[in-house]
Write a structure and sequence with these properties.
Methyltransferase, Cobalt-precorrin-4 Transmethylase, Domain 2, 283 residues, 17% strand, Cobalt-precorrin-4 Transmethylase, domain 1, 5-stranded parallel beta sheet, binds S-adenosylmethionine, alpha/beta, elongated, 3 domains, 5-stranded mixed beta sheet
């Protein structure tokens, strides 16, 4: 009888609180022949906490393409392999895409073992709309790149979710305000599931002030969420919006709205409402 292929299990692990690992994840990690880990030392600590002594293989951004071939060989030889990352769900801003794709192409079954994921954990506690959301991964390191990355997000995609680092968050908030206006509602979710878990709500300026009030607040892991485009903004065209934003940097609100309407032949009232939202001014 032909030997059965082994499977690739994509196993989510905790993003902080070790109690968040599922029973199914533990059983899978106990039963597989190999565990492919982003950082074998980091995963070694989780495994020893769980009392599991499994053979680990390093699979990270720099060796994934080549390592995938040897993992697939193992599966084709009937061995079962689990893929884990340092935290959360593999492939989500983490290695694994190439391996999963190659497994698919080679006819190796891929079995997801779901669990923690920072973006979903953040979103479900943010109090921002969840019917539609758009994850853009890590915000880019340089300000201009970051502004372009944010400006490319189309209107109407719902809540925007980004990963960011403690080192860059204050600059990122400035870029968010430059692209979406400083009136846009944001939520910064920090250290989720850990001792210093905190969700801070407000505009870019308000959250920056909160961060600046205590240097410890600028530490740790964080997810930044941006509320969806307000209704008034989705009523005007992308071209009107960018002209309006530009004119608002030089002119009073009423004048900027009137000139934008003149330039594009748009409705002054709708533009005026958007200008109020962008600047946070009231009528
Ligand atoms: N695969 C992971 C997942 O499922 O969320 C994400 C890995 S990515 C390399 C790491 C980033 O996720 C961090 O820089 C941070 O933006 C976010 N993150 C991970 N753990 C977090 C936590 N406990 N609290 C807040 N953000 C977290």
């Amino acid at each position: 009888m032909a030997k059965q292929n082994g499977f690739l299990y994509v196993v989510a692990t905790p993003i902080g609180n070790l109690d968040d690992i599922s029973q199914r994840a533990i059983t899978t990690l106990q039963q597989v022949d190999w565990i492919a880990a982003e950082d074998t030392r980091h995963t070694g600590r989780l495994l020893s906490h769980l009392g599991i002594s499994a053979k680990t293989i390093a699979l990270h951004d720099h060796n994934e393409k080549q390592r995938a071939a040897s993992i697939i060989q193992k599966c084709l030889a009937g061995e079962h392999v689990a893929l884990v990352s340092d935290a959360g769900t593999p492939l989500i801003s983490d290695p694994g895409y190439s391996l999963v794709r190659q497994c698919r192409d080679a006819g190796v079954r891929v079995i997801p073992v779901p669990g923690p994921c920072a973006l979903i954990t953040a979103l479900c506690a943010a109090g921002l709309p969840t019917d539609k959301f758009h994850f853009i991964g890590f915000l880019l390191p340089k300000s201009q790149q970051r502004q372009n990355q944010l400006a490319e997000v189309p209107a109407g995609v719902g809540t925007i979710i980004c990963y960011d680092t403690a080192r860059r968050i204050k600059d990122s908030l400035q870029d968010v305000a430059a692209v979406f206006g400083d009136a846009r509602e944001l939520v910064l979710a920090k250290e989720l599931t850990k001792t210093f878990e905190h969700l801070e709500y407000g505009t870019a300026t308000q959250i920056s002030a909160w961060l600046e009030a205590d240097p410890q607040r600028c530490q740790g892991e964080m997810v930044l969420m941006i509320a969806p485009t307000p209704k008034a903004e989705s009523d005007i065209s992308e071209a009107e919006l960018s002209t309006l934003k530009l004119l608002l940097t030089e002119l009073p609100l009423k004048k900027a709205a009137a000139l934008t309407a003149q330039i594009h032949g748009g409705k002054k009232n709708a533009l005026y409402k958007v200008a109020l939202q962008l600047t946070g001014e009231t009528e």
